[in-house]
UniProtKB/TrEMBL annotation:
Keywords: Aminopeptidase, Hydrolase, Metal-binding, Protease
Organism field: Novosphingobium aquiterrae
The keyword Nucleotide-binding belongs to this UniProt entry's keyword annotation: no
GO MF annotations in UniProt: aminopeptidase activity
Membership in a protein family: Belongs to the peptidase M24B family.
Enzyme Commission (EC) number: 3.4.11.-
Protein name: Aminopeptidase P family protein
Domain Peptidase M24: 313-531
């Protein structure tokens, strides 16, 4: 039976829970790999609630339910989720575990799927419920799957070989590095659960998850340099087997738990941030000694080698030309009226596809007109789609997946006719000043992203405004557009100097913003590469950023009087580089437009 309303789905879930003797259930956006973006089969939260964001969760009790999102989705959740069915809860002001501790009745049994939650969350929720006299209960088989009659099946698309010339290092060399890491710590094996970790370690890619070129699989990496890949048989091609060689044993996904259990008596590294509770339970239950450590592929993957850096530059130059063509097209068509958020996003994708090398978008394009731009992670669909009005601000945050690199760029433009207001220009220019200050940053070895975050916010703070998201995230190499462990954001819990230090070869976004609810939003984003810097008389090692992203920034929205000489010099040098890289790829009216767009201040 198809359930076409969220009320009917919620009712059906409560009946299923009652049948199982459960008093509640927790629904995250997650899959067996703790992925940020998940396949259609794992979109359980969207199916149950209607929420289409990429981060959130819900808790369902017999008499009430709540949906939990962070500041990025405060507006979106209210547009998409029925407030009569679900309370809106804001993270981190509260947490799902805390809400359960306050709302579950004494003696309640709250179900959770151990294949969708990490151990830290399970520990926190168990503690919160115990104080209430309630308990957290792992379920066999997800109850939503039992009632979701038209649930998509997991993808069976073939896994693909990622060429060594693009990867810059063979899988054998990467496995050898992991083996050294294990041996140095007296460990026998490591579980690699994160899909991008598996992809990076074995130099494979796939098309199982929209926007992220990965194949659904797990890896057990051993201290002798061998590995076991757990993957659906239909996904394994002769080319893949030949690429993996004799040192990688290919097994079915169903063999994963038995092989974990076969590690009884062994010391096994498991990453609590990237492996689900079920992995810990299988190992511990079999008598393996679990050692909680960050997955050894994480940092190695984040530091891009010369081949990956060169690929990223090539991808960015190609992508920048597609962006320039789009911005030229937008400058002609949008002032006429008749464009909307969806049609603009479709045209931008078409420009990228015309390169002939686009594999996928790197995330769903944020095509945000007017008030929608005030929602930083807005996602346009047929229901939310609105016209791009003349005489307004339009924000587009987008990216492409190419075999040689992953792109992510945001541009905010003024749609004519007429002129932007003084407020528009002030806020845009303060965001720009923050972007430039971060782009120009020079910092000593050992610096973490939270120590640089203030630079991007300084000009906004002087006007008494701020933004509620991080300033920069790591980016993969034909992998996830959001990649850790590096990031640029406010220190968590007031702890300055915590987090991953920035290392040469890491790629991050530089994306300060400003958002006025119900009115407009502004963000300017480029990707940057951490590189070594030489300073006369320096004491110690110093780093800075190489800008990777090149496309015009809209001068119409700039208040030149707010810019310093150094900022004007940055603008002029940046746009000279945009012209040098993109002009050979354009012609005709688009080339003439680019010349005007790159004119010095």
């Amino acid at each position: 039976m198809l359930m076409n309303t969220h009320e009917a789905r919620l009712d059906a879930l409560r009946k299923e829970l009652k049948k199982r003797g459960l008093d509640g259930f927790v629904v995250p956006i997650s899959d067996e790999h703790m992925s940020e973006y998940v396949g259609g089969y794992a979109q359980r939260l969207a199916w149950l609630t209607g929420f289409g964001g990429s981060a959130g969760s819900a808790a369902v009790l017999a008499d009430k339910a709540a949906v939990f999102v962070d500041g990025r989705y405060t507006l979106q959740v209210r547009e998409q989720v029925d407030g009569r069915l679900f309370e809106y809860q804001s993270v981190p002001a509260t947490s799902l575990a805390a809400w359960l501790g306050e709302n579950a009745r004494e003696g309640a049994k709250i179900g959770f799927d151990p294949w969708l939650h990490g151990k830290p969350w399970v520990d926190a929720a168990t503690t919160a419920l115990k104080a209430r006299g309630a308990s957290l209960v792992p379920v066999e088989g997800n109850p939503i799957d039992a009632i979701w009659s038209d649930q998509p099946a997991p993808s069976l698309a073939p896994a693909l070989v990622h060429p060594t010339d693009l990867a810059g290092q063979s899988s054998e060399a990467k496995r050898s590095d992991v083996a050294e890491w294990l041996t140095a710590r007296g460990l026998d094996a490591a579980v690699v659960s994160a899909l991008d970790g598996v992809a990076w370690l074995l130099n494979i890619r796939g098309s199982d998850v929209e926007r992220t070129p990965v194949a659904l699989s797990f890896v057990l990496a051993h201290a002798d340099g061998t590995a076991e890949l757990f993957i659906a048989e239909d996904k394994v091609t002769p080319e893949l087997r030949a690429h993996l060689g004799n040192a990688v044993t290919v097994r079915t996904r169903e063999a994963f738990v038995p092989q974990l259990q076969a590690l009884a008596g062994k010391k096994v590294a498991v990453d609590p941030e990237r492996s689900v509770q079920a992995v810990f339970a299988a190992l511990s239950g079999a008598g393996a000694q679990v050692v909680e450590l960050t997955d050894p592929t994480v940092l190695a993957k984040a530091v891009k080698n010369p081949a990956e850096q060169a690929g990223q530059r090539a991808a960015q130059a190609r992508d920048g030309a597609a962006i320039a063509r789009f911005l030229h097209w937008l400058s002609i068509e949008a002032p006429k009226g008749g464009l909307d958020e969806l049609s603009a996003a479709a045209r931008l994708q078409a420009f990228r596809e015309e390169t002939g090398l686009l594999r996928d978008l790197s995330f769903d394009t944020i095509s945000a007109a007017g008030p929608h731009a005030a929602s930083p992670h807005y996602k346009v669909d047929e229901h939310s789609n609105i016209p791009i009005a003349p005489s307004s601000v339009y924000l587009v945050d987008s990216g492409g997946q190419y075999a040689d690199g992953t792109t992510d760029i945001t541009r905010t433009v003024w749609i004519g006719p007429g002129e932007p207001s003084a407020e528009h220009k002030d806020r845009f220019t303060r965001v720009l000043k923050g972007h430039i200050m971060l782009a120009l940053a020079v910092f000593p070895k050992g610096t973490v992203g939270s120590q640089l975050d203030t630079l991007a916010r300084y000009a906004l703070w002087q006007a008494g405004v701020d933004y509620a998201h991080g300033t920069g995230h790591g980016v993969g190499s034909f992998l996830s557009v959001h990649e850790g462990p590096q990031r640029i954001a406010k220190a968590q819990g007031g702890q300055a100097g915590t987090g991953q230090e920035l290392l040469p070869g890491m790629i991050l976004s530089n994306e300060p913003g400003y958002y006025k609810a119900g009115d407009f939003g502004i963000r300017t984003e480029n990707l940057v590469l951490v590189e070594r810097r030489t300073i006369a008389g320096q004491e110690g090692e110093y780093y800075g950023f190489e800008t990777l992203t090149f496309a015009p920034i809209d001068h119409t929205l700039v208040d030149d009087s707010l810019l310093t000489r150094e900022e004007v010099d940055w603008w002029n040098a940046y746009h000279a580089r945009v012209w040098a890289l993109l002009s050979p790829q354009l012609d005709g009216a688009a080339l003439a437009w680019l010349k005007d767009a790159c004119a010095p201040l």
